[in-house]
Amino acid sequence: MNNPLHNELKKEFQLERMILFSDAVFAIAITLLVIELKIPEISLNELTDHKLFESLVELLPRIIGFLVSFFLIGLYWTIHHRIFGFVVNYDQKLLWLNLFFLLAVVLMPFSSGFYSAYIFKLLKAPLIIYVTNVCFLSLMNMLLWRYISNPKHKLSEGIQPEFAQYFLTRAGIVTVGFFCMGLVYLFAPKFGVFVPLMIPVLMIIAKRRFILSSKQAQSV
Amino acid sequence: MNNPLHNELKKEFQLERMILFSDAVFAIAITLLVIELKIPEISLNELTDHKLFESLVELLPRIIGFLVSFFLIGLYWTIHHRIFGFVVNYDQKLLWLNLFFLLAVVLMPFSSGFYSAYIFKLLKAPLIIYVTNVCFLSLMNMLLWRYISNPKHKLSEGIQPEFAQYFLTRAGIVTVGFFCMGLVYLFAPKFGVFVPLMIPVLMIIAKRRFILSSKQAQSV
Amino acid sequence: MNNPLHNELKKEFQLERMILFSDAVFAIAITLLVIELKIPEISLNELTDHKLFESLVELLPRIIGFLVSFFLIGLYWTIHHRIFGFVVNYDQKLLWLNLFFLLAVVLMPFSSGFYSAYIFKLLKAPLIIYVTNVCFLSLMNMLLWRYISNPKHKLSEGIQPEFAQYFLTRAGIVTVGFFCMGLVYLFAPKFGVFVPLMIPVLMIIAKRRFILSSKQAQSV
Amino acid sequence: MNNPLHNELKKEFQLERMILFSDAVFAIAITLLVIELKIPEISLNELTDHKLFESLVELLPRIIGFLVSFFLIGLYWTIHHRIFGFVVNYDQKLLWLNLFFLLAVVLMPFSSGFYSAYIFKLLKAPLIIYVTNVCFLSLMNMLLWRYISNPKHKLSEGIQPEFAQYFLTRAGIVTVGFFCMGLVYLFAPKFGVFVPLMIPVLMIIAKRRFILSSKQAQSV
């Protein structure tokens, strides 16, 4: 503990380690998705192109589920990448908040696989599982950001208060939006699927308010 | 070997390589757990919400097992993260001690899967497998820390002797606690499950002694 | 945001993070391939060397498929490694282009597994799936390179315009070559398999033109 | 290409990228091994401790195979770690030699799984597969080391010629030793298994010669 420069580098590596560990979890979760795309097994006697195309059509819901999950995990990876671009320090609570966030990521292959396997009927179980997972992921994203952007914890650098608020609002809109979708779906499935459409509308309103507040902050 | 600064950087990278390799193993072990959560297969003719919820209830022990293992591996990752925050050098023995530690981590998905599949009866085999794995993990943690914190090996920096002792005691309490649990369980299963409750009690005692000894060290 | 050196280092780490995340995806995709090589299960009563060698012969198409995919993913890893050797900055669009590129990589185990399982007959479905995947991978490689090498985006350093053009042409040849192969195969399967042979011929022509244009650029 | 310090850092990162990619492949291969340890499935009606212990005994050859492969991959990771501790540069050929080395690593879970599933009879197929894999791994290790330690290629720093020769001899002994084992096993299985015992004997002889030649080099 006698060399301050060395300690600074060590602290930075410890932070990088947490981030690269998260990346590895993201990378595995996003690649494991492909395991659900099982190669159709057809006995050699009745193997024809027609049979193979039929088996691919049967695989279609899983392929769609794969793509949706790939981009959802990819999206949250870019968000994680963006958030941690501000982080300059860490503490035990951040390690654990991050682990809970990763838990939600790791569960995505299961819940989206479950959802895409039974997507074609208006069933409740698959959608509830899936929406719960997305809500949990979005909620952890919110808590992580609130903890990091709070200047009291001295974990981040260069976050303007208006931006912190804007980012928090966005995460909140996703969480609440999917939560409402789940609730409505339970009682009126046909309406539930339209609830997420309100998310982009709210996002635009939040963006306008952010641009306004940034301008006010700059003019002051 | 002519440039001392370059060699210093190379040594540091070699150490980082060992740590990032460990992180990758942790990340894969923690993400592979989700593979055990197999999506229930129900034929389309008898597919109802009732059937799906039933299949989820059947999956419940596996979900609990998944969560327990996720947090156990997550916990040991934070411990590994903390321990290696002190390390500034490496040798062949450290590489191998670390590999044995990782062996215990890699076995967790198997032993916790085994345990959670047969948790509901007071059977001996699943618990013994699980307790053996946790004991082994905790023991390797102890040996790793003892080797790293020993000033003779010149592997670490900034560890105060009282802290080294305290951390060693904590790891020892977990090892012995789970070992006793296994022993008691063999002869009196109903009592065995309560043995781990003594771990937090002993932890508090160890913490008090540590605070006391730190104060004495500071006053000297 | 007050320390410019710190911000520069942070930006560099953010870039490295994207690259190491890509590496993890490559590494998992290349290693997951081996899961398709299932160990043949033979009941102990009829277990003989003859039976085992027979089962290995049956596994042969999968082994060939494994090797082809291993080297394809390996090849694209070296290309990714080479491309990002020029990159010094990132933006949101680069993150997403890279994610689409990784999507094509992640799909390789599926499409090559599908292809190698049904390689022995002149069927259309497996080849179309496989060719589509390779075209998609090659196309993303092209788009990624075009975006990175464009000096307007200020993402790269040290790319000479002739080299940028040459690399783009190469990626284009692979994309178009495999696309033509797929088209010809649909109508005349026996000819289709020879179409990729034109790729190395076009590559040599592209290389000559590149050497010529580099000389002209140097003499100016 | 105007900033030499920046280019030096970039080159170093490109080298680190190759190494960390290798680590990820090692980490996945070593962790995937545990997937072969399938949790025994016993119907709940006949579930007893006796049944479970029996199923664990049946799993024993796989557990042994898992441990052997874990330590073999772990051993080659430490060798890779040691070799690349000398490397200061890279070229395309090194990337590809390393990829071939990783191919041998990635195949280990398959060949050792195959071997450990049918270990108990004096069958030829499993052992030949396994020995071929170990020979291939050891041979690639040899070629990698010969390429890196050759001063002409300017890839490494600080390797004394005697040490380069010694390390090459060691890798050669392992390659030839396992190759002979395979050959002898084909014609006289009962003798074949004793051939690897000559490896440690030859290792000791190689070590003595290395110590001798180092002393001579120092005295000159």
Automatic annotation (TrEMBL), chains A, B, C, D:
Topology with respect to the bilayer: Multi-pass membrane protein
Transmembrane domains' residue ranges: 20-39, 59-79, 95-115, 127-145, 166-187, 193-211
Reactions mediated catalytically: K(+)(in) = K(+)(out)
Entry GO MF terms: potassium channel activity; proton channel activity
Domain of life, source organism: Bacteria
The UniProt record lists the keyword Membrane: yes
Protein name, per record: TMEM175 family protein
Organism: Solitalea agri
Taxonomic lineage from the root: Bacteria, Pseudomonadati, Bacteroidota, Sphingobacteriia, Sphingobacteriales
